[in-house]
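Service request form, structural biology core

Requester: graduate student, group of Dr. S.
Request type: structure prediction, single chain
Budget code: on file
Notes: please return the result as structure tokens.

Sequence provided:
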Amino acid sequence: MDTLHFAQQPDADALLTRSPLATLTGMLLDQQIPMEWAFTGPYTIATRMGHDDLDAHEIAAYDPEAFAALLSEKPAVHRYPGSMAKRVQQLCQYLVEHYGGDASAVWRDVDSGKELLGRLKALPGFGEQKARIFLALLGKRLGVRPEGWREAAGAYGEEGSYRSVADITGPESLSAVRAHKQEMKRAAKAAKEAGGAGK
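Core staff response, request fulfilled:
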């Protein structure tokens, strides 16, 4: 299993590497903010709760207002700490209800990439794209490779690509992924403008 380098911060990355719930939570937070900020979030939450790891049972049962306040403390865990606090709690409540609070149970005994994708898509806050990226992350970085995992991950499962967090092994690959994302944004904007011009 690789050491993860998503937060680009040693303590936060160490937590991601050893804690399946931290990695899942980082993936949940990874939207509308820089990726390193998102993946530092689990470490920040754990530290503010006075622990060295996240506990799904504890987070699921936490007072919602108090949990939102915890994520809102400066520096905030996310640009939208209130709504993301709710999402993190929903994710932990789902894990408690369906997997006994054990995040790794989501992928531990799956027989196929298709089954794993289905399980990930069922998680609160995980749409199709996020589920595929996380599936690629599991396969490429954490050695979770059920049959057909690359196909289930779609383009994110491709060998040697720089499309997502699943492809990050250090600062150089982080830059490559960032450049790819900017290129995709540019292409989408150009396509939108071209569509508007054709009317």
